[in-house]
UniProtKB/TrEMBL annotation:
UniProt domain YqbQ/XkdQ: residue ranges: 20-317
SUPFAM superfamilies, per the entry: Phage tail proteins (SSF69279)
Pfam family, one: YQBQ
Name assigned to this protein: YqbQ/XkdQ domain-containing protein
Superkingdom, natural source: Bacteria
Length: 319
């Protein structure tokens, strides 16, 4: 494991580490690295806030980010916490962005904050424009990605790819099963499987639109009566843009029912680690005893490295 710190003053330190944790989440969170470093004399290594932190394990480019927290203890252990570039999307600002595809809108935001970008795939769908005051950039990014998901059923993830922000369709984040999979006879330590209609599952969608010309509020309802008989009424309410046409509203409501009309299926995994896996990856999982043999989307991924042993914890779900 190579752990380098560039203090941005012409010095690069290669410091031995005791342990390291790298965590990524798919929605609204920056990737982090937390590590314990063996450092007998910290005064010989002047490390500044904002220093560049780079982690590699052989050929694997694990993490590239910036130091935000550091501390030192009596037993000569320095602890650090670094974030990747997504941390800077926690900045708050006023955002006035016209109707745009999500990729174009997000590139505009990245440019505003001087962030380095890599591959940005074309999302296609033109999302409605926004006017937001005093909002986190991450919240605005999520709005554009959510609008694209509902309209097209195509799921995109924004992530830091070793120092450059990338936007990709999760279909292009698939780890092929013949390259890597997790199963009872392959890497798996333990698991916890759950199916639920308690969160983000709906069989009725109620949209409201304020019609200023007529001076009234209009209501649009889309529902699945068969699933209401099974589960009871599970309703989602949403105020929509007054400029949307009836045809656009109908299309949106139909897609919302399709997208949100099934039980969620989640799985927590503890297994041996592989640096290829991160939040947003699609991973094949095979657990025969509960009938699982399919690809799951990684919502959260936590890698742990200690004394040469690499493990990971995954929170995954079916899409």
């Amino acid at each position: 494991m190579e752990f380098l710190i560039d203090n941005r003053q012409g010095d690069v330190y290669d410091i031995p580490i005791r342990d390291l944790t790298w965590k990524t989440e798919r929605i609204g969170k920056a990737g982090t690295v937390e590590a314990s470093l063996v450092l007998e004399n910290p005064l010989k290594y002047p490390i500044q806030s904002g220093a560049i932190v780079r982690v590699m394990d052989g050929k694997h480019k694990v993490f590239y980010g910036y130091l935000f927290d550091d501390g030192y203890s009596k037993d000569s252990v320095m602890t650090i916490k670094a974030y990747d570039q997504l941390r800077y999307l926690m900045n708050e600002d006023t955002f006035v962005i016209p109707a745009s595809p999500a990729d174009k809108a997000i590139l505009t935001i990245c440019k505003r904050f001087g962030l380095k970008v890599g591959t940005f795939e074309n999302t296609g769908y033109v999302s409605p424009g926004i006017v937001e005051d005093g909002k986190k950039a991450f919240d605005v990014v999520s709005k554009f990605l959510d609008a694209s998901l509902v309209a097209t059923n195509q799921n995109y993830i924004l992530f830091d790819d070793f120092g450059k922000l990338s936007l990709k369709n999760i279909k292009n984040m698939v780890i092929k099963a013949d390259d890597f999979y997790i199963g009872e006879d392959s890497l798996l330590f333990s698991f916890n499987y759950k199916r639920s209609i308690d969160n983000d599952t709906y069989n009725r969608v109620k949209f409201v639109r304020d019609n200023k010309k007529r001076g009234k509020r209009e209501t649009f309802i889309f529902e699945d009566s068969t699933k209401q008989k099974k589960w009871g009424l599970l309703q989602h309410w949403k105020k929509i843009d007054e400029n949307m046409t009836d045809a656009q509203i109908k299309d949106l409501g139909t897609k919302y029912i399709q997208l949100k009309g099934n039980p969620s299926r989640t799985l927590d995994i503890e297994c041996l680690g592989n640096w290829k896996i991160r939040a947003g990856s699609m991973v094949f999982i095979y657990i025969e005893k509960i009938g699982i043999k399919e690809y799951f989307l990684v919502d959260e991924c936590t890698h742990r490295w200690k004394e040469g042993i690499h493990t990971m914890s995954l929170k995954v779900k079916v899409i």
